Amino acid sequence: MLPDTSAKDLTMTFQRHSTRSNASAARRAVAVSLCCLGLLALAGCDKPKEEQKEAAKEAPKEVTLTIESDGDFPYFVPNELAAPTGARVKLTFHHAGEILTQSHNWVLVKPGTMEAVETAGIAAGEANNWLQKDDPNVLAATPLIGKGAHVTFEFIAPAPGDYPFMCTTPGHGEDMHGILHVTEN
Questions:
Q1: Mean pLDDT of 150-157
Q2: Which end of the chain is more exposed for a tag (fewer CB within 10 A), N or C?
Q3: C-alpha distances in angstroms, 48 versus 52, 53, 58, 127?
Q4: SS3 state at 25
Q5: Residue ranges per domain, the chain?
Q6: Taking the model in full, what pTM does it have?
Q7: Core vs surface per residue 68-77: b (16+ CB within 10 A) or e
């Protein structure tokens, strides 16, 4: 048997429970909305970082390299350099000699072509930097410089691989050479 209640009491009880339910539902809705907004904000934050990473991969890198002769000896120090493919390489070459007056240069060549570049350079002569004009085997080169001088120039690193570099002054290439290691990005 049901307790004796009036319609007014039932309505007030229903409204009280309904108000509690509505308040709980409203709080849940607000909480869910805030969570969704938070997730959207996080998703939006990650996207620019990913885009920045992609842009960094695509953007050409800039690399600064320094190399010099080993005093008056015909050697490069260091004799190994590295750069990522496609990078804008800014290379500074210093002729560190103090006594001998022979000029040096730094010439980057295609693999397996050092001897051909040197032979063609001898034919071209000193007036042409000991380099044949427009030699397809030469990828980058400094002009000849004398003792104590510096030269800085830029070139774009070629495809990945190991590329020899050398001095093309006659007889120097045997000892004055090294490798530029070009790596993947």
A1: 98
A2: N
A3: 6, 8, 15, 53
A4: helix
A5: 1-56, 62-183
A6: 0.69
A7: bbeeeebbbe
In whole angstroms, what is the distance from residue 184 CA to residue 111 CA? Answer: 17
- Report pLDDT digits (tens) over 24-76: 554 554 444 444 444 444 444 444 556 545 545 665 699 999 999 999 999 99
SS3 per residue for 139-174: EEECCCECCCCEEEEEEECCCCEEEEEECCCCCCCC
Q: Which two tokens stand for residue 43?
A: 């998703």
- β partners of residue 25: none
Residue 70 token pair: 């080993």
Q: What angle do CA 4, 5, 9 make, to 5 degrees?
A: 170
Determine which helix (DSSP H) or strand (DSSP E) holds 135, and give its type and residue range: none
Residue 125's identity, in one-letter code, is G
Task: Please answer whether residues 111 and 83 qualify as being in contact, where contact means their C-beta atoms are separated by less than 8 angstroms.
Answer: no
State how beta strands 107-109 and 161-166 pair. Answer: antiparallel
